[in-house]
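Order emerges. For instance:

***
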Amino acid sequence: MIARLLLAVLLAAGLASRARALEPSERLADPALEARAEAIGRELRCLVCQNESIEDSNAALAHDLRLLIRRHLVAGDSDRQVIDFLVRRYGVFILLDPPFEPLTYPLWLGPPLLLLGAGGALLWRARRRAVVPAPPALSAEESARAAGLFGEPR
């Protein structure tokens, strides 16, 4: 009985987390404007959550940004103007898919360069280990002593 109750609570919590963050009061009356607002919101990162778009986030800042987007769209701004306004205000970091430009080169090129560097270091280390110098030859005295230890005739 307790296991079923626990399962029901976990299932309800899982479903609740998937609920849309957009509140009914935020929706625009014009379906075309609402669709544009949602499309813009899916392109922007929640600055609190950082791995969610502002459309999916429940953070207060994401709520404010959704309202700001809708306010700009109602005022007649284009999608590009709204996104440019938010980039000027919060920086390129707000974009979930930042552009490939000099400011974002480290973001785009950093991981592949780190991966190549780590792979090169591992390859260099493996090659360095593979070249093991031959042990020095035993002297006559050492050979005789080893033969004696192993019970071999001299």
Remarks:
- The chain has six helices and no strands.
- The chain has two domains: 9-96, 99-127.
